[in-house]
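pasting for ref
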Amino acid sequence: MEFFVFLNLFKKFNKNLELYYFLNHFFGFNLGFSYYVCLKQGFSPFMKLLYLDNRDLYLIFMEFNFFYCYFIELKNFKKLKIDFLKQIYSIKGYNHSFFLPVRGQRTKNNSRTRKKYHIT
């Protein structure tokens, strides 16, 4: 996401929201992480959006953009590892393919949730 897109979306939010609450709803990270980013950038987490200018918003946006890209890369890496296990026909890859427990748990009586909801 580009900063100008972020700025246009920011204008639609209520300006009386607290900063960490806005970051939680806009970026989707939990409240604790939003609180941490506010403190790291030198802002009070309880500051109202009304008092922020474009420079402040840019600093916050760049911080969240860095973490967002980092998390996306980790998710892709995890998916590539699972695909590799499937490709070499390992037991773990087989279990991932058929939604079975991967780490050696029993399947006769247990793992009903993983089988029912196809949790990967």
